[in-house]
Amino acid sequence: MNFDNEKHKCLSAFSSTSFDKSPKGCIDIAVRDTCALLNSHPNYATTSSCSGRIAIFDHGPSPNNNNPDSSIQNMNGGKGSGKWLLSVHGRVSSSQVESALDYNNSDPPSPSPSPSLSAFTCMLKHEPLLLHVMCRDMASASSLLTTSLSCGFRESGITVSNSNKIIVAIRTLGLSLSIPVSRSPSLRVSKDIMSGYLAECNSRFASNEKKTNRLNKSIEKLLLGHLLNFPPSPPPPIRVEFSSLPPINVWGHTIVTTPPPHASVISFGGYR
C-alpha cells in the first residue's frame, strides 16, 4: 500500500458531498481541530470520526403499525435495518427525547397485560468519541496509540489489513451507555425517570468533552515532537559558477557583491 496515495484519496473524499454516510453528513465541529492536526502531519490521515453523541436508535417496527410513515428503513446505506430517532452531538433536553419517542401520542396501551420485551425496540445511547487514523508505519501508530491510552481511551488499538494499511482506532467504552426504551405508551417510563436517564447521558457527554480536549492537546505535543524529529526536506539545488577577477592591488579594502541578474563585485576603501 502506498500511504501517500491513500492519504490523498482520504483527504480528497472529505470534500465530496457523497462521502460522509453519518446521519449528520459532515465532520463534527468538536473533532475538526483534532482531524486537521493529524491530517497536517505527513505520517497520519483520519479516515472516520465521531466526536460523541446522545442518540435514540429504533431497531425494529414502530408500535404504530397503521402509520406508513413509521416503517423502519435502512438509513444512508448503513448496515442492517433501523433508523435514528434522535442524534445530537451535544447535550439533549427532555423535550427533544419526548418528541423523538412520541410521548404526546395518546394511543391506547397494548391489550396484552404482559407485553413482550421485544417491544423495547429503541435504545437511548451515549456514544463517546471514536476516531480512526491511518498511519504511515508502525512507529507512528505506536506513538499515537500510546498517546490515546494515556488520555483515557483505554479500548484503543491498532489493526493491520492484508494490504498493510495501518489503522489506529481511538475509542473508549468507559463512557458508553445504552438504555432500552420504548415508543409504546404501555411501556414508556415516566418523565421523571427519563429525566434521570438524560442527566446521566449529559454528564457522560461532559466527561467525553474533557477527554477529547485532553486528547487534542496531547496530539499537539506528539506531532510537534514528530515534526522536530522529521527529516527536513532537502534544499533546492543551487548553481554556482566561478570566474577569475582582475587583480586588485589594494590593501585594507572591503568587497561586497550584488545579486543577479546584474551581479558585480564592488571594492570600498583601502590603499595602494
Characterise the protein shown here.
The protein has 272 residues and is of the alpha+beta class. It has a single domain, classed as SSo0622-like fold. Helix content is 30%, strand content 21%. The strands form 3 sheets. Strands 1-5-7-6 form a 4-stranded antiparallel sheet. Strands 3-2-4-8 form a 4-stranded antiparallel sheet, covered by helices on one side. A two-stranded antiparallel sheet has the order 9-10. α2 (29-39) runs parallel beside α5 and α4 crosses α5 (191-229). The chain is elongated, with a radius of gyration of 31 Å. The termini are far apart.
List descriptors:
272 residues; alpha+beta; SSo0622-like fold; 4-stranded antiparallel β-sheet; 5 helices; 10 strands; 21% strand
Number of helices: 5
User: Largest sheet, described in full?
Assistant: 4 strands, antiparallel
Number of domains: 1
Give the N-terminus to C-terminus distance in angstroms. Answer: 70 Å
Number of strands: 10
CATH architecture: 2-Layer Sandwich
Helix-strand makeup class:
alpha+beta
CATH superfamily: tRNA wybutosine-synthesizing-like
Approximate strand percentage: 15-25%
As residue ranges, the low-confidence spans are 62-78, 106-115
- Classified by CATH, the class is Alpha Beta
Numbering strands along the chain, what is their spatial order in the largest sheet?
1-5-7-6
What's the overall geometry? Answer: elongated
Record the SSE blueprint.
Elements: H1 3-14, H2 29-39, E1 44-50, E2 53-58, E3 83-88, H3 94-100, E4 122-127, E5 130-135, H4 138-150, E6 157-160, E7 166-171, E8 177-181, H5 191-229, E9 254-258, E10 264-268
Antiparallel strand pairs: 1-5, 2-3, 2-4, 4-8, 5-7, 6-7, 9-10
